[in-house]
Amino acid sequence: MPTPVFLTVDTEIMWRHHVAGHDVETLFARSFEPGGVGVSYQLALLQRHGLKATYFVDPMPTLVYGLDPFKRLIEAILTAGQEVQLHLHPNWIGAKAGDSGKARGPSNINELGLDAQRDLLGGACDLLVAAGAPMPIAFRGGNYGANDDTLIALADLAFLYDTSHNGAAHPWPSAITLVESQIAPIEHQGIVEVPVTLIEDAPGRMRHFQICALSAAEMRAALDHAIDNDHAALTIVNHGFELANRNGTAPNAVHVSRFEALCTMLAERRNALPTTQFADRPVLRLDQDDRPLGASITRRRWRQAEQLWSNLVAERVA
Questions:
Q1: 6, 49, 144, 275: least surrounded by Cβ within 10 Å?
Q2: Does position 317 have pLDDT exceeding 60, yes or no?
Q3: CA atoms within 13 A on the CB side of 38
Protein backbone atom coordinates (compact mmCIF):
# COMPACT_ATOMS: atom_id res chain seq x y z
CA MET A 1 0.00 0.00 0.00
CA PRO A 2 1.43 3.45 -0.85
CA THR A 3 2.89 5.55 1.97
CA PRO A 4 1.67 9.17 1.72
CA VAL A 5 4.41 11.76 2.07
CA PHE A 6 3.87 15.18 3.65
CA LEU A 7 6.64 17.40 2.31
CA THR A 8 6.32 20.39 4.64
CA VAL A 9 7.94 23.82 4.58
CA ASP A 10 7.85 26.02 7.68
CA THR A 11 7.68 29.54 6.30
CA GLU A 12 8.25 32.55 8.52
CA ILE A 13 9.99 35.88 8.97
CA MET A 14 13.11 35.00 10.89
CA TRP A 15 13.35 36.54 14.34
CA ARG A 16 17.07 37.25 14.04
CA HIS A 17 16.46 39.47 11.00
CA HIS A 18 13.81 41.35 12.99
CA VAL A 19 16.30 41.79 15.84
CA ALA A 20 18.84 43.13 13.34
CA GLY A 21 16.41 45.93 12.47
CA HIS A 22 16.10 45.25 8.73
CA ASP A 23 13.36 47.01 6.78
CA VAL A 24 10.36 44.95 5.68
CA GLU A 25 11.63 44.30 2.15
CA THR A 26 14.96 43.00 3.48
CA LEU A 27 13.10 40.89 6.02
CA PHE A 28 10.96 39.46 3.23
CA ALA A 29 13.96 38.77 1.00
CA ARG A 30 16.16 37.16 3.65
CA SER A 31 13.36 35.09 5.17
CA PHE A 32 11.30 34.08 2.12
CA GLU A 33 13.68 34.45 -0.85
CA PRO A 34 17.20 34.17 0.62
CA GLY A 35 20.13 33.75 -1.73
CA GLY A 36 17.89 32.93 -4.67
CA VAL A 37 16.96 29.55 -3.15
CA GLY A 38 13.90 30.48 -1.11
CA VAL A 39 10.21 29.89 -1.68
CA SER A 40 10.15 30.77 -5.40
CA TYR A 41 13.08 28.48 -6.18
CA GLN A 42 11.58 25.65 -4.15
CA LEU A 43 8.15 26.06 -5.76
CA ALA A 44 9.70 25.86 -9.22
CA LEU A 45 11.65 22.72 -8.33
CA LEU A 46 8.55 21.06 -6.86
CA GLN A 47 6.59 21.89 -10.00
CA ARG A 48 9.36 20.51 -12.22
CA HIS A 49 9.21 17.19 -10.37
CA GLY A 50 5.41 17.11 -10.04
CA LEU A 51 5.48 17.07 -6.23
CA LYS A 52 2.97 18.36 -3.69
CA ALA A 53 4.03 20.28 -0.60
CA THR A 54 2.51 22.01 2.41
CA TYR A 55 3.70 25.49 3.38
CA PHE A 56 3.13 26.11 7.07
CA VAL A 57 3.02 29.91 7.16
CA ASP A 58 3.40 31.92 10.37
CA PRO A 59 1.20 35.04 10.06
CA MET A 60 2.12 36.50 13.45
CA PRO A 61 4.67 39.02 12.04
CA THR A 62 1.78 40.74 10.23
CA LEU A 63 1.06 42.33 13.62
CA VAL A 64 4.34 44.21 13.20
CA TYR A 65 4.92 44.47 9.46
CA GLY A 66 1.45 44.32 7.91
CA LEU A 67 -0.28 41.89 5.58
CA ASP A 68 1.25 42.89 2.23
CA PRO A 69 4.42 40.71 2.32
CA PHE A 70 2.30 37.73 3.34
CA LYS A 71 -0.30 38.36 0.66
CA ARG A 72 2.48 38.14 -1.95
CA LEU A 73 3.91 35.02 -0.35
CA ILE A 74 0.60 33.18 -0.05
CA GLU A 75 -0.49 34.12 -3.56
CA ALA A 76 2.75 32.68 -4.95
CA ILE A 77 2.32 29.41 -3.01
CA LEU A 78 -1.30 28.92 -4.02
CA THR A 79 -0.70 29.90 -7.64
CA ALA A 80 1.98 27.20 -7.80
CA GLY A 81 -0.59 24.60 -6.73
CA GLN A 82 0.77 24.12 -3.21
CA GLU A 83 -1.19 24.50 0.01
CA VAL A 84 -0.94 26.88 2.97
CA GLN A 85 -1.52 25.72 6.54
CA LEU A 86 -0.87 27.38 9.91
CA HIS A 87 2.49 27.79 11.66
CA LEU A 88 2.95 29.99 14.72
CA HIS A 89 5.82 31.46 16.72
CA PRO A 90 4.27 33.26 19.73
CA ASN A 91 7.40 35.34 20.35
CA TRP A 92 5.84 37.84 17.91
CA ILE A 93 3.17 38.74 20.49
CA GLY A 94 3.81 42.37 21.38
CA ALA A 95 6.86 42.65 19.10
CA LYS A 96 7.78 46.11 17.80
CA ALA A 97 9.77 47.14 14.77
CA GLY A 98 13.10 48.74 15.54
CA ASP A 99 13.45 47.68 19.19
CA SER A 100 16.08 44.95 18.56
CA GLY A 101 13.64 42.28 19.68
CA LYS A 102 13.25 43.55 23.25
CA ALA A 103 9.44 43.27 23.20
CA ARG A 104 8.39 39.67 22.67
CA GLY A 105 6.10 36.89 23.78
CA PRO A 106 6.97 33.35 24.89
CA SER A 107 9.14 31.14 22.68
CA ASN A 108 6.62 28.29 22.47
CA ILE A 109 2.84 28.15 22.39
CA ASN A 110 2.85 25.41 25.02
CA GLU A 111 4.07 27.94 27.57
CA LEU A 112 0.50 29.32 27.54
CA GLY A 113 -2.63 27.87 29.12
CA LEU A 114 -5.41 26.22 27.14
CA ASP A 115 -7.65 29.28 26.85
CA ALA A 116 -4.77 31.52 25.83
CA GLN A 117 -3.63 28.99 23.24
CA ARG A 118 -7.13 28.75 21.79
CA ASP A 119 -7.44 32.52 21.53
CA LEU A 120 -3.99 32.86 19.95
CA LEU A 121 -4.64 30.12 17.39
CA GLY A 122 -8.01 31.59 16.48
CA GLY A 123 -6.47 35.02 15.95
CA ALA A 124 -3.66 33.55 13.87
CA CYS A 125 -6.22 31.80 11.65
CA ASP A 126 -7.91 35.15 11.05
CA LEU A 127 -4.58 36.73 10.07
CA LEU A 128 -3.73 33.88 7.70
CA VAL A 129 -7.11 34.08 5.98
CA ALA A 130 -6.83 37.88 5.77
CA ALA A 131 -3.57 37.35 3.90
CA GLY A 132 -5.33 35.20 1.31
CA ALA A 133 -5.12 31.62 2.59
CA PRO A 134 -8.05 29.22 2.91
CA MET A 135 -9.11 28.43 6.47
CA PRO A 136 -6.38 26.10 7.75
CA ILE A 137 -7.03 22.55 8.90
CA ALA A 138 -3.45 21.59 9.84
CA PHE A 139 -0.95 23.12 12.26
CA ARG A 140 2.68 22.92 13.31
CA GLY A 141 3.95 24.78 16.34
CA GLY A 142 7.04 26.92 15.98
CA ASN A 143 10.05 25.01 17.38
CA TYR A 144 7.71 21.98 17.34
CA GLY A 145 6.46 23.53 20.57
CA ALA A 146 3.05 22.07 21.36
CA ASN A 147 1.42 20.06 24.11
CA ASP A 148 -1.87 18.26 24.67
CA ASP A 149 -3.60 21.58 25.37
CA THR A 150 -2.52 22.73 21.90
CA LEU A 151 -4.25 19.74 20.34
CA ILE A 152 -7.40 20.30 22.40
CA ALA A 153 -7.46 23.95 21.30
CA LEU A 154 -6.94 22.95 17.65
CA ALA A 155 -9.79 20.44 17.83
CA ASP A 156 -12.02 23.13 19.35
CA LEU A 157 -11.20 25.30 16.32
CA ALA A 158 -12.12 22.50 13.86
CA PHE A 159 -8.56 21.65 12.84
CA LEU A 160 -8.13 18.08 11.65
CA TYR A 161 -4.35 17.58 11.81
CA ASP A 162 -1.34 18.59 13.85
CA THR A 163 2.27 17.80 12.96
CA SER A 164 4.20 19.20 15.93
CA HIS A 165 5.30 15.92 17.52
CA ASN A 166 9.02 15.54 16.91
CA GLY A 167 10.73 12.84 18.96
CA ALA A 168 14.12 14.47 18.39
CA ALA A 169 12.81 17.52 20.29
CA HIS A 170 10.88 15.58 22.93
CA PRO A 171 10.02 16.11 25.78
CA TRP A 172 10.76 19.82 25.25
CA PRO A 173 9.78 21.89 23.41
CA SER A 174 7.84 19.13 21.63
CA ALA A 175 5.75 18.23 24.66
CA ILE A 176 2.78 16.26 23.33
CA THR A 177 2.30 13.15 25.48
CA LEU A 178 3.30 10.60 22.87
CA VAL A 179 6.35 8.37 23.00
CA GLU A 180 9.54 9.74 21.50
CA SER A 181 9.63 7.14 18.72
CA GLN A 182 6.04 7.74 17.53
CA ILE A 183 6.22 8.35 13.77
CA ALA A 184 2.92 6.85 12.56
CA PRO A 185 -0.20 9.04 12.47
CA ILE A 186 -2.33 8.63 15.57
CA GLU A 187 -5.55 10.13 16.92
CA HIS A 188 -4.72 12.04 20.08
CA GLN A 189 -6.75 14.59 22.04
CA GLY A 190 -9.42 14.80 19.34
CA ILE A 191 -7.11 15.43 16.40
CA VAL A 192 -4.95 13.35 14.06
CA GLU A 193 -1.30 13.83 15.00
CA VAL A 194 1.04 13.34 12.03
CA PRO A 195 4.49 13.17 13.63
CA VAL A 196 7.69 14.28 11.98
CA THR A 197 9.57 11.26 10.63
CA LEU A 198 12.67 10.19 12.55
CA ILE A 199 15.73 8.09 12.01
CA GLU A 200 17.92 6.66 14.74
CA ASP A 201 21.11 8.72 14.73
CA ALA A 202 22.82 6.47 17.26
CA PRO A 203 21.30 3.74 19.44
CA GLY A 204 18.64 5.44 21.55
CA ARG A 205 19.11 8.88 19.97
CA MET A 206 16.73 10.23 17.33
CA ARG A 207 17.22 12.69 14.47
CA HIS A 208 14.33 14.16 12.52
CA PHE A 209 13.87 14.14 8.75
CA GLN A 210 14.81 17.71 7.90
CA ILE A 211 16.90 18.96 4.97
CA CYS A 212 19.56 20.53 7.16
CA ALA A 213 19.59 17.53 9.52
CA LEU A 214 20.05 14.52 7.21
CA SER A 215 22.40 13.74 4.34
CA ALA A 216 21.04 12.63 0.97
CA ALA A 217 22.14 9.07 1.82
CA GLU A 218 20.21 9.16 5.10
CA MET A 219 17.14 10.55 3.34
CA ARG A 220 17.33 7.82 0.68
CA ALA A 221 17.63 5.13 3.34
CA ALA A 222 14.68 6.59 5.29
CA LEU A 223 12.49 6.68 2.17
CA ASP A 224 13.30 3.09 1.28
CA HIS A 225 12.80 2.02 4.90
CA ALA A 226 9.29 3.50 4.80
CA ILE A 227 8.52 1.62 1.57
CA ASP A 228 9.99 -1.68 2.74
CA ASN A 229 8.06 -1.53 6.02
CA ASP A 230 4.78 -0.19 4.59
CA HIS A 231 4.73 2.88 6.82
CA ALA A 232 1.47 4.73 7.31
CA ALA A 233 2.97 8.14 6.44
CA LEU A 234 6.23 10.00 6.09
CA THR A 235 6.63 13.64 7.17
CA ILE A 236 9.58 15.73 5.97
CA VAL A 237 10.53 19.22 7.17
CA ASN A 238 12.10 22.07 5.25
CA HIS A 239 12.07 25.84 5.77
CA GLY A 240 11.64 28.68 3.33
CA PHE A 241 15.09 29.93 4.35
CA GLU A 242 16.81 26.59 4.91
CA LEU A 243 18.64 26.31 1.59
CA ALA A 244 20.52 29.58 2.13
CA ASN A 245 23.25 30.54 4.56
CA ARG A 246 22.28 31.90 7.98
CA ASN A 247 22.53 35.50 6.81
CA GLY A 248 20.11 34.81 3.97
CA THR A 249 22.52 36.25 1.43
CA ALA A 250 23.75 33.22 -0.57
CA PRO A 251 22.86 29.58 -1.20
CA ASN A 252 24.17 26.88 1.10
CA ALA A 253 25.40 24.42 -1.54
CA VAL A 254 25.11 21.42 0.78
CA HIS A 255 21.47 22.09 1.61
CA VAL A 256 20.56 22.93 -1.99
CA SER A 257 22.09 19.67 -3.15
CA ARG A 258 20.16 17.72 -0.53
CA PHE A 259 16.84 19.30 -1.46
CA GLU A 260 17.39 18.70 -5.16
CA ALA A 261 18.34 15.09 -4.42
CA LEU A 262 15.23 14.64 -2.25
CA CYS A 263 12.94 15.95 -5.00
CA THR A 264 14.53 13.55 -7.47
CA MET A 265 14.17 10.62 -5.07
CA LEU A 266 10.53 11.40 -4.37
CA ALA A 267 9.77 11.74 -8.07
CA GLU A 268 11.41 8.36 -8.74
CA ARG A 269 9.38 6.75 -5.93
CA ARG A 270 6.09 8.53 -6.57
CA ASN A 271 4.08 5.30 -6.93
CA ALA A 272 5.18 3.99 -3.53
CA LEU A 273 5.60 7.40 -1.85
CA PRO A 274 3.04 9.81 -3.33
CA THR A 275 3.31 13.34 -2.01
CA THR A 276 0.03 14.63 -0.62
CA GLN A 277 -1.45 17.66 1.11
CA PHE A 278 -3.56 17.98 4.23
CA ALA A 279 -6.31 19.64 2.20
CA ASP A 280 -6.58 16.36 0.25
CA ARG A 281 -7.74 14.83 3.56
CA PRO A 282 -5.97 11.58 2.78
CA VAL A 283 -7.18 8.45 4.52
CA LEU A 284 -4.39 7.67 6.98
CA ARG A 285 -3.76 4.32 8.62
CA LEU A 286 -3.82 5.20 12.30
CA ASP A 287 -2.05 3.48 15.18
CA GLN A 288 0.46 1.47 13.18
CA ASP A 289 3.61 0.56 15.09
CA ASP A 290 6.00 2.07 12.55
CA ARG A 291 9.61 2.20 13.69
CA PRO A 292 12.33 4.68 12.68
CA LEU A 293 15.21 3.63 10.45
CA GLY A 294 17.96 2.09 12.57
CA ALA A 295 21.32 3.71 13.18
CA SER A 296 24.24 3.43 10.76
CA ILE A 297 27.66 4.69 11.73
CA THR A 298 28.66 4.93 8.05
CA ARG A 299 25.73 7.17 7.16
CA ARG A 300 26.25 9.25 10.30
CA ARG A 301 29.96 9.84 9.62
CA TRP A 302 29.24 10.92 6.06
CA ARG A 303 26.60 13.38 7.26
CA GLN A 304 28.96 14.76 9.88
CA ALA A 305 31.56 15.37 7.19
CA GLU A 306 28.92 17.17 5.10
CA GLN A 307 27.90 19.25 8.10
CA LEU A 308 31.50 20.26 8.72
CA TRP A 309 31.81 21.45 5.12
CA SER A 310 28.47 23.25 5.41
CA ASN A 311 29.47 25.06 8.60
CA LEU A 312 33.02 25.94 7.60
CA VAL A 313 32.54 26.71 3.91
CA ALA A 314 28.94 27.08 2.72
CA GLU A 315 27.89 29.22 5.71
CA ARG A 316 30.81 31.62 5.23
CA VAL A 317 29.88 32.66 1.71
CA ALA A 318 29.05 36.38 1.76
A1: 49
A2: no
A3: 25
